[in-house]
Design a protein that fits this description.
About 35% of the residues lie in helices and about 30% in strands. The chain is built from two helices and seven strands, in the order ββαβββββα. The strands form two sheets. The protein has a five-stranded antiparallel β-sheet with strand order 3-4-5-6-7, with helices on one face. A two-stranded antiparallel ribbon has the order 1-2. The chain is rod-shaped and about 95 Å long.
């Protein structure tokens, strides 16, 4: 028969109740079973670690940084009806969407960013949206 006792300092001590006076085989079996459990735990931790790394890469590629900047595109238009929205991942890759509201029209512009670089120049409001998004 086996028993396990816990010391006050958190150490685990394994012992055997000697039924036949020997007890050596029971102790060896117990040690082997503990080693198997430890090996199983190491495999499980390695598997979880691998899956976590995969999730980290997937999360880095998602839109996680967003910001909206509202403004008046034209003098005397009022109401901050125009807006620029930055939607980026952790490496500053994504899009900036700008909606420019005039008195009798609205225009929408989409500009792509690849690691912080736009193929078309960004307006000051678009740059502000990108910087606000990355600050979050």
């Amino acid at each position: 028969m086996r028993f396990v006792s816990f010391s006050a300092k958190g150490f685990v001590r394994a012992g055997v109740l000697l039924g036949d006076g020997n007890g050596r085989d029971d102790l060896i079996d117990f040690a082997v079973s503990l080693q198997k459990r430890i090996d199983d735990l190491h495999r499980a931790v390695d598997e979880v670690s691998t899956k976590l790394s995969t999730l980290d890469r997937r999360v880095d590629d998602t839109v996680s940084k967003t910001a909206i900047v509202r403004y008046d595109a034209y003098e005397n238009s009022g109401g901050h009806q125009s807006a620029s929205i930055a939607m980026l991942d952790s490496s500053r890759t994504g899009v900036v969407l700008s909606a420019i509201q005039g008195r009798d029209y609205a225009r929408i512009y989409v500009k792509e960013l690849d690691r912080g670089r736009a193929s078309v120049a960004l307006s000051p409001e678009e740059l502000e949206a990108v910087e606000r998004a990355m600050a979050r």
